[in-house]
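Quick one: examine this chain and its backbone structure tokens and tell me how the chain folds. Here goes:
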Amino acid sequence: MKTALVMLLAMLTSSAFACTLDGCDHPDCGSCGGACCRLSITIPESTESVMNKLNASIVAGGPDGLYTPMMTAEGTLTFGDLRPYGKPIDFIGQAVHTTINGVYNDTVNFSLAPVSENETEVMAFSISQIAGAYCDDGQNYLNILQLVEGVKWDGGELDLDQVSHLDGSCPDPASSLKK
């Protein structure tokens, strides 16, 4: 009986910490073994401009103040420059996002590839850092979108038509209702 009560309290507590912000409508139910989200976002700016703007936002804590820049293998904070190595991407980066309740952390990875001189494909991937994260209420989707939408881009606000789902992770709410 005591074990059942503890489990019930744990379930109720975890649901109280669910992502409830606007944008938490793309839940992922284990497409990466646990909750995750993988998106491609096209931004009409150079890779260096995109990197500088995302980096400045992350170093400042991001739009919600809960992003932490991570050290790269290249020895730089948040983004590493791969241009000297002739790779198909120009920059690679990582940040950690803490959920608004301060309980959970998610790792957000980025790669920035040139589409043209003034257009960048941002490949972004967010994954929950805790075992057992399943049906994340859209937190991983939010980790990516609020960061990218929070930047002041030269062309104005990000158009959601520039965002593509690359796999079955963090599906659009309408597509998850069809199942």
Q: What stands out?
A: The two ends are 36 Å apart (CA to CA). Residues 34-168 form a domain with the TATA-Binding Protein fold (CATH 3.30.310). Strands lie at 36-43, 67-69, 79-81, 91-98, 105-116, 119-128, 163-165. Helices lie at 2-16, 47-59, 139-149, 173-177.
